[in-house]
Design a protein that fits this description.
single chain; about 70 residues; about 5% helix; mainly beta; 5-stranded antiparallel beta sheet; 7 strands; SH3 type barrels
Length: about 70
């Protein structure tokens, strides 16, 4: 389950999950987040992508890891 808070992307940068929304056409759960660097614009990503495992350096790792 995705929680609000701070996360680290598998490439090293940090993000803050602010809230959740439902896609109006597909009813898919979306994650509302902002990068903790740069302009701090708001972004959305499907929750299924947020929680998926990705390959990095030949290993499967979480795309985002919860920090606090």
């Amino acid at each position: 389950m995705i929680k609000r808070g701070r996360y680290r992307h598998f490439k090293g940068k940090e993000y803050e999950v602010l809230d959740f929304a439902t896609h109006s056409e597909t009813l898919e759960l979306m994650v509302l987040y902002r990068p903790l660097y740069g302009e701090g614009k708001l972004w959305v990503r499907p929750a299924s992508m947020w929680e998926e495992m990705v390959e990095a350096d030949g290993k499967l790792v979480p795309r985002f890891t919860y920090l606090s």
